[in-house]
Specification:
239 residues; alpha+beta; 4-stranded antiparallel beta sheet; two-stranded antiparallel sheet; 56% helix; 15% strand; elongated
């Protein structure tokens, strides 16, 4: 097989074939990438951490190697091993997305990160070193470099959601009136189903900042101001 990948061309024909040397190289590279990604997820205390990403990446990479062998040696026209892995990982990662008791979506980034890493690992298994390394670099840039930018954009938004716990159900009207007087527009208010039988009056509230002067304040300052209301037992921003 003539290597078409730039790195494979530089290394030699052996790196694009299915043999012990190329398998060892690919395994070392995929473990290194999985460690970097897993440490980033573990550092931020996400459920899928170091070992999860190592196992996921190794499995996807060997599926790519198997398909490379089936296509180049046995003449199989369909990369069924990788397809099966992608379907399986899609199902598993989808189940890692949950709603917390505060109606907050959790695990979305980790889920898509695992799915993307499986594709990168399969590319490495196919012998597409350049595409795999570029894809991994893009994945890490997306997770690391843009996290602060995402937080900045969210904090500057005129729309946000809050987790609200009132002292009683009768306090809801008082809170609504106080929020409007404060310069907020309540776009949506839902009773949190996670607390349905607890006796607590807990809501997920989506608000917009209507007052121009209030827009100069941060979300944390607005939350702090709402928190001193007599009717509020506990309040925090969602997301």
């Amino acid at each position: 097989m003539i290597p078409t990948d730039s790195i494979a061309t530089l290394l030699g024909t052996w790196s694009a074939e299915v043999n012990i040397a190329s398998t060892v190289l690919k395994t070392a590279l995929v473990i290194l990438m999985a460690v970097v990604l897993g440490c980033e997820r573990s550092r931020n205390r996400h459920a899928a951490g170091l070992r999860t990403f190592i196992v996921l990446s190794i499995g996807s990479m060997f599926a790519g190697i198997a398909d490379l062998y089936f296509v180049t040696v046995l003449g199989v026209g369909f990369t069924f091993m990788s397809a099966a892995v992608f379907i399986g990982i899609s199902i598993i990662t989808a189940n890692t997305i949950i709603f917390s008791s505060k109606n907050q979506i959790m695990g979305l980034t980790t889920s898509f990160g695992g799915w993307t890493m499986s594709i990168v690992s399969a590319l490495l298994g196919f012998g597409l070193y350049t595409a795999a390394l570029i894809g991994f670099a893009a994945l890490m840039i997306g997770l690391l470099a843009f996290s602060k930018l995402e937080m900045y954009i969210k904090n500057k938004s005129n729309h946000f959601e809050i987790h609200l716990e009132l002292k009683s159900k009768s306090s809801l009207q008082e809170f609504n009136a106080a929020a409007r007087k404060f310069g907020l527009t309540i776009d949506n208010l839902e009773l949190n189903p996670a607390y349905a039988n607890s006796g607590l009056s807990v809501y997920t509230v989506r608000v917009s900042i209507a007052d121009k002067e209030l827009r100069k304040k941060s979300h944390s300052e607005i939350i702090e101001a709402l928190g001193v209301l007599d009717c509020v037992s506990y309040i925090e921003k969602i997301g």
